[in-house]
Amino acid sequence: MNCLEQLGKRILYWDGGMGSLLQERGLKGGELPEIWNVTHREDVIAIHQAYLEAGADIINANTFGANRIKYPQGKEHTLRSVIEAAFENAREAKKRSGREDACVALDVGPTGKLLEPLGDLAFEDAVAIFAEIMQIGKECGADLVLIETMSDAYEAKAAVVAAKEQTDLPVFVTMVYNESKKLLTGTSPEAVVSTMEGLGVTALGVNCGMGPAQMREVAKELLENASVPVIVNPNAGLPRRENGKNVYDVTPEAFAEIMSEIAKDGAWIVGGCCGTTPEHIRLTKQACDRVNPLPIQPKKKTVISTHGMAVTLCGEPVAVGTQIDPAVSEDVKEALLDEDFDSILDEATEMEDDGADVIRVCVAMPEADEETLLPETILELQTYMKTPLQICTENPKALDQALRIYNGKAMIHAVNGMQERMDQIFPLAKKYGAVVVAELADENGVVKNEEERTVIAKKICQAAKQSGIAMENLVYDMQPEEDESVFAVLETLCR
């Protein structure tokens, strides 16, 4: 039985540090580890085999740094050659260890470049880089994709989008948090969860950066917000230099003891990162096998987010900022036509300062190309603002582009009872994980009759479910005092 079939039934065990063990075997500073898949094949196989014999259910193919930036065309060792060799080695290790039940992950690390606006790598260029890796990994027989050691949720989104578009494999994501429980780019665990779960990842978590004791608090926050299995893969402490080598101070015994506590907290997938050895994994498995894992509970939280902020909607009215909309303001219209985004930002900042929970953005006007202007406006606003955005457009292509480059979990305004509109909106909301505002309206406009409003509400709810939209990602635009019977129906439908 493939180990992934056991996910959610028992604790699964990941392997540990590949790079640190290669360094022990002679990998030099600045040398690309993936080349060892070809030049030092037996060393790589031996490390995989040791982890498998220690009890790891999942091993990472030695592909962490394999991308076209580090392995451009024309070099002796091509991107395809090192990835193909990585999977050959992993399969050989499974054979030698008798662990055919184990899974091999396509290990995907950061590109090494910062995405715009922090750096010079465009989002779509990042997607293209990751897409190439995903295509090769799928062809090589990867069982799953691990997107790991990400310090920017935007780059992680690019990798997830690529994985989803190029493969049908389960996608796991682990990020690197600092001591303040934030990513390098300032994103909180709650915001990361909202974005990654929205994109449909199978499991998410934390790796690298910290030892298990320091990582436990981040893991707890992930567990409080996640409705999917949580992964915890710490370092064996922080490295220090000793006699020219990296030394890690957390022993296998101490590591396993803390990992068992993390498993008791609710983690379902545990393993190691830098400095961890097969002995760390062996003792962790012994300790955690004694833990009765907590059930994975759907949190059913309605969350919208940006890179810097998550807003949880709990049945209270949402404060929507006065719209960024050329139909509402001539000044906004003029600024959009002139691409004067500083003025647009000033408008949005004023709304943010006034306490808006979300800012509605619409750029539709006959004089402009909405499919270009909407994503440009979203990019400019999210560069400087923390407040989540509500994207308002009748153009499905513009909506697709805006959701694709949105850094976080967006809100869509709006769907209604028209079948054509639902067919346009719900697939995009599912793909990019957005919250959708539903209006009780149809071809005749906003419906006033309570019975008719109930019929439309049912229709929208059922269509959302058929599209795979979680009910917490559907928000109805209505007043409780005016729609008491509608609320009663929806409470039953949305359970």
Summarize the structure in words.
- The structure is a single chain.
- By secondary structure, this protein is an alpha/beta fold.
- It folds into two domains: 3-288, Homocysteine-binding-like domain (TIM Barrel, Alpha-Beta Barrel), CATH 3.20.20; 302-493, TIM Barrel.
- Helix content is 43%, strand content 16%.
- The chain has helices at residues 18-24, 36-39, 41-54, 79-97, 123-139, 153-166, 189-198, 212-225, 252-265, 278-288, 330-337, 341-353, 370-384, 396-405, 419-432, 450-466, 484-493, and strands at residues 12-13, 58-60, 103-108, 144-150, 171-175, 203-207, 230-233, 240-242, 245-247, 269-270, 302-305, 310-313, 320-324, 358-361, 389-392, 411-415, 435-439, 441-442, 445-446, 474-477.
- The strands form five sheets. Strands 1-10-7-6-5-4-3-2 form an eight-stranded parallel sheet.
- Helix 5 (123-139) crosses helix 6.
